[in-house]
Design a protein that fits this description.
Layout: H1 3-119
Length: about 120
């Protein structure tokens, strides 16, 4: 081989070695980046698992609130019914009281008339 050709081959080999070295550096950097991503993904998996637990707890709490709301709603319905019955009873008592007052007034009038007749 000629000297010139040998030198060219040496230069190509040096370029190739530099390229391999550069590739190795990039691969090493990528390995570091991938390791970091793996760590990040592992952390995210833990976070997601925690969020799933939180959501399950929130769903349970929501169900408890829903049950309590239904219970309170039923109690309110019962209270409304009781209030309606009390109003009806009060109306009856009021009517009876008005009747009693009316009858007492009528009897007072009759007594007054009898006294007037007796005093004549």
């Amino acid at each position: 081989m000629s000297e010139e050709r040998l030198e060219r081959l040496e230069n190509l080999m040096m370029d190739l070695i530099k390229m391999v070295g550069a590739n190795n550096a990039v691969v090493a950097e990528m390995k570091t980046d991938v390791a970091g991503l793996k760590t990040d993904v592992a952390g995210l998996k833990i976070d997601v698992a925690g969020l799933k637990t939180d959501v399950a707890g929130l769903k349970k709490t929501q169900e408890l609130f829903r049950e309590e709301l239904f219970t309170q709603s039923a109690r309110m319905d019962d209270m409304r019914k009781d209030i309606r019955e009390i109003k009806e009873r009060l109306f009856d008592v009021n009517m009876n009281a008005n009747y009693a007052v009316s009858m007492a007034t009528r009897h007072d009038k009759e007594i007054f008339i009898m006294k007037e007749k007796l005093s004549l």
